[in-house]
Amino acid sequence: MLRFRLSLAVLAIFVCVVPVFIAQAPPTPKEFFGYELGQRYTTHARCVRYLETLAERSDRASLIRRGQTSEGREMLLCFFTSAENQARLEDLRLQMEKVADPRRLQEGESVDDLIADLPVFVWLSYCVHGNETSCTEAALKLAHTLCTSDSEETAKMLQDTVVIVDPCTNPDGRDRYVNWFNSVAGRRVDSHPQSMEHQEPWPGGRFNHFNFDLNRDWAFVSQRETRSRAKHFVRWNPQVHVDYHEMGHNSSYFFFPAERPINANLPPYTMKWGKVFGRGNAVAFDAKGWDYYTEESFDLFYPGYGDSWPSFHGAIGMTYEQAGHSSSGVAVKQRNGNILTLQDRVDHHFATSMATINTAATHRLALLKDYQGFRASAVAEGKGGAIREFILVPSDDIERSSRLVDILKLQGIEVRRATASFKTPEVVDYSGQRHREKTFSAGTYLVSMAQPTKRLIKTLLEPKTEIKELYFYDIAAWSLPFSFGVEAYWSPLDINVDSALVEEIEKAVGAVDEGDAQYGYLLRWDTLASVRAVLRLLDRKVMLKYAREKFTSNGRPWAAGTVFVPRGRNVADLDEQVAAVAAATGACFVPVASGMTEKGIDLGSQKVVRVRPARVALIGGEGISTTSFGATRFLLEELYDIPYSVFSAKGFGSVELKDYTAVVVPSSSDGLDAAARENLSKFCRAGGVVVTWGRGAQALGQEGSKWSRISTKAKKDESKKPKPKPKPKPKPKLKRIEEREKERRRHATPGSIFKVELDAGHPLAFGYRGDITVFKSGTMTFDPEKGGTAVGWFRDAPPLSGYILPETEKKMRGRAYAMVERKGRGAAVFFADDPNFRSAWHGLTRLFLNAVLLMPSY
């Protein structure tokens, strides 16, 4: 009887405890979501909750929140490894820091000892393009498998690797697509590729909230998603990084090795491992009979991708592309008649995820040794290379150089600052001119090449990227000193000067100089701090003016564009307002006692005109370039807080514009309709300014709708010389496909960097001193003698960086980059390319801001 009672007691305990234990086991996706992964799309909030649940219930998983998107969605990093590794995860990270930087090794420490039991870090990023949606679903499947699989293979993988999963790099874009698709899809799957659920509307889910392509932002780190990702990447120092994508639904599957060109700053090590991982993926696909290809389409040249940027850090960075994209929905019929399903896409990405982890685990020791060798050799090469140091010279506009230093630091690059002036025996400027015995002031930034990130430093800062092969998936030039408009040099020698590692980014310090402000204040217009100050003062209802010509006051010269804050007819608390804005923005105000100047125009002249409080109308919608629209919106909202409204191109003809000072028409694939163009004409006649560029400018110009007289046509040869007798045409040579492709590539015009000369006396150029560098994609430029006033034109020189066919470049010489055409009391401003491109060209920011802030008062 006693034995029976004990058995009942044990049974009661079992009944009570076991269900609790089972309830705490990680749920399957079907148990959690109510459907199998691949049957439908999962919203981001539910993805986050599922991953949180796995981390709560599995000792193989943990996660951190790396920030929030602009729309408030959580960004996660999930860590999957054995329970033993989870318990010492921070110690493993610190151990990896020493592997990643040989300078951190203590006396007696051995690299071999460090890596003997160190797992290899594998970082997998899913869904950087939000409408490439199968990626995140595959990440969920991977997460569940790594938490629950009992196979020996999985156990070994988890012991030998730390798998870092970014389940959705672009939550805002993905939810934009998922919510749209779920709203239009019916209960029955519709695979017809032209049905509504396969026709994603503008702006699409590819981009983030500000319509940036996050897979082009790794090097510029302008977006919060990218900044957070870069911060954690350099903290964890992974050896492998895979960026998961989708491409057109009629393709198959791509994985590395990559297509050429390969950036010249990457060593053979990178391609060697690309082949190793490619073979590992091929084994997994061959076993299933799935189609795939390698070494086509996707290169390793531009440093802003999710494969190239990690590669410059020493990781094996790779892109995996699955057929699908936004046109696939849950199922789509391909040209070959096959039905491609979401389930197929999830399975394929899951297969390469597991194969990649397995390959990394199998080659753990070799990967770690090669990674450490990559980083150590970078330091050694930096000590003995042709370029030893980069020198960045801060100008009076502190913000531009500070921003550049900020993004270098964010990418794990050490920057020092000279604490005293110094002289160098030899330096080379960014035009290629050598300087002997050049002196630099205290505060100059120094970037030594003798650090583990040497290859990334050289790629980002070198003035001219080495181009070995004429194939460009993206742009051909990006040198950051050019894009930020920062004076820079490189030195072939080490620079020995007292300096300190930059920990905090320098900020402009505002001030109001001492003196009599009886007549008001003056503010220079050559710093971005001044721009912020003007915007703040206008918000506070302070009246401002700007001088259209130069003058001298109190013995001090003031350039055209100088801002005048008059005391007369202004706010009663003017002094308090100016002091507050100076402190908040870093701008420096100079008191002025009299409106009479010693030289040039007086401050009461009609050439000192009132600044209209800015309000911008930004055109978006179908037909407008999403990224061009997004870069402008980001500048207006996030960078400068300029009041703006967004209007759709469709129906813009009926928009009331009397309360706006400028209309911005980003690059567009087709022109505005007749009603919209008439509305723009009416707006200009009333004193407004229209700003446009690229294909938007072409659509409004002579070769488009003829809304403007500005022409993009090449100037005709009007010489009277007799034409030579034509030679008999040679028999046409038949070209093979390979020859035709080579010729096409030779004529390519990817984005390159050019020097532009400005007319400093025009309000569009106020604040600049001399030439500027611009980014130019394609060959569209303006005829400087037709339709308006040329304010900026291309110099008689080849590109500073990038590639263009010599005969094409010759045709650009003397052509205009920026044109202004008066229309009624207003004006139209035309740029040959986007001055806000990828929020990277801060050296051109003032050009755009002059157009929207100063030109309405022109």
Give an overview in words:
Helix content is about 35%, strand content about 20%. It has about 850 residues and is α+β, with helices and mostly antiparallel strands. The longest helix has 22 residues, at about 1-25. The chain is built from 25 helices and 34 strands. The N and C termini lie far apart (about 105 Å).
List the helices and strands and how they pair.
Elements: H1 2-23, H2 29-33, H3 44-57, E1 61-68, E2 74-80, H4 83-87, H5 89-100, H6 111-115, E3 120-126, H7 134-148, H8 152-160, E4 161-166, H9 171-184, H10 224-236, E5 240-248, E6 253-254, H11 268-288, H12 308-312, E7 316-324, E8 331-333, E9 339-341, H13 342-362, H14 364-384, E10 389-393, H15 398-410, E11 416-418, E12 422-429, E13 434-440, E14 445-448, H16 454-461, H17 480-484, E15 487-491, E16 499-501, E17 511-512, E18 520-523, H18 528-539, E19 545-547, E20 551-553, E21 556-558, E22 563-566, H19 574-585, E23 588-592, E24 599-600, E25 608-610, E26 616-620, H20 626-639, E27 644-648, E28 662-665, H21 674-685, E29 689-693, H22 694-700, H23 737-746, E30 752-758, E31 772-776, E32 789-794, H24 806-812, E33 816-823, E34 826-831, H25 845-854
Parallel strand pairs: 3-4, 3-5, 5-7, 17-23, 26-27, 26-28, 28-29, 29-34
Antiparallel strand pairs: 1-2, 2-4, 6-7, 8-9, 10-14, 10-15, 11-14, 11-16, 12-13, 12-15, 18-22, 18-23, 19-22, 19-25, 20-21, 20-24, 30-31, 30-32, 32-33, 33-34
